[in-house]
Design goal:
It contains 4 helices and 16 strands. It is α+β, with helices and mostly antiparallel strands and 279 residues long. The chain has 2 domains: 2-87, no CATH class; 110-277, no CATH class. The longest helix is centred in the first third of the chain and has 45 residues, at 43-87. The strands form 6 sheets. The chain has a 4-stranded antiparallel sheet with strand order 4-7-5-6, with no helix packed on it. The chain has a 4-stranded antiparallel sheet with strand order 10-15-12-13, with no helix packed on it.
Length: 279
């Protein structure tokens, strides 16, 4: 009995290939069932062989199922890719394709208009300064106001009016505009050069026509100017600067801002870009 058990032994752990040379045992060299020429094998050996055979069959079935799933997945992928190409009318060959790219050029003289009144200057020298051309991309404005230094009051422009007191803008002046929504405002044109702006006695609304910020003390002359006012968008009211004050609500003017100056007498406000832009 012991000899028969030893004669039966095949090394299952070595791919079922190594068999005892002392007896006539044939072991499979693949993952199929194990065959033996030995008859009258012990019951426990036969049961173990059947168990191994069942395991092998289960593994084969699992491999077949997995292989089928992989093939189906590959077919679905190819069909999906083919459908996308047909819908987009893009050939599966290596031909060139064409498209379009939209590019928006934003000029340096660009800043935000806010909901409500905005006090602004033209920081570039547009070739067409009519209100329709200047505000052509602003869809929600209702009024434009210009300071009239002769009457010391505002002239009001309305796009709905049959007639208006003015219909164009001047790079020397500051303007109010009323908007219903926030919008980005841009002025296309070259930079403004050095400028001389005529001032009258009383309130004037000269522009700040440059693309850079500066300290207001670089052009304010305490012997000529009593007050300066800028518009505060969040509070919708003026901020007042006085050369005589110990503290002021602001000290700088920024690109695109408008301003009011109170002059003691008529004079010329001189803007020298080199001096104004120095740190």
């Amino acid at each position: 009995m012991l000899v028969e058990r030893l004669a039966l032994h095949c090394d299952y752990m070595a791919n079922l290939r190594i068999c005892s040379r002392h007896v006539g045992v044939l072991c499979s060299n693949h993952s199929g069932p194990i065959f033996t020429l030995v008859k009258n094998l012990p019951k426990e050996v036969r049961e173990k062989a059947k168990e191994e055979e069942r395991k092998m069959d289960s593994i084969k079935q699992l491999m077949i199922i997995l292989g089928g799933l992989i093939i189906l997945a590959a077919l679905f992928f190819l069909l999906f890719k083919l459908e996308i190409n047909l819908q987009s009318k893009t050939p599966l060959t290596g031909r060139d394709t064409f498209g379009y790219v939209s590019v928006t050029i934003v000029p340096q003289c660009t800043y935000w208009f806010y909901d409500g009144w905005n006090f602004f200057s033209l920081c570039a020298n547009a070739s067409n300064k009519t209100i329709n051309a200047t505000l052509q991309n602003i869809t929600s404005y209702r009024y434009v106001m210009r300071w009239n230094t002769t009457r010391m009051e505002f002239d009001i422009y309305s796009p709905r009016a049959a007639e208006n007191p003015f219909d164009s803008m001047d790079v020397n002046e500051s303007y109010f505009v009323l908007l219903y929504n926030e919008e980005l405002f841009s002025v296309f044109g070259p930079e403004n050069p050095d400028m001389n702006i005529t001032m009258v006695q009383g309130w004037d609304a000269p522009s700040w026509p440059y693309l850079f910020d500066t300290n207001v003390t670089k052009y304010l002359d305490p012997s000529k100017h009593r007050y300066m006012m800028k518009w505060d968008n969040p509070t919708q009211e003026f901020l007042i600067y006085s050369p005589r004050a110990a503290e002021n609500p602001f000290t700088k003017i920024f690109k695109g801002e408008g301003q009011f100056l109170y002059a003691y007498s008529a004079h010329t406000l001189e803007y020298n870009k080199t001096n104004l832009s120095d740190p």
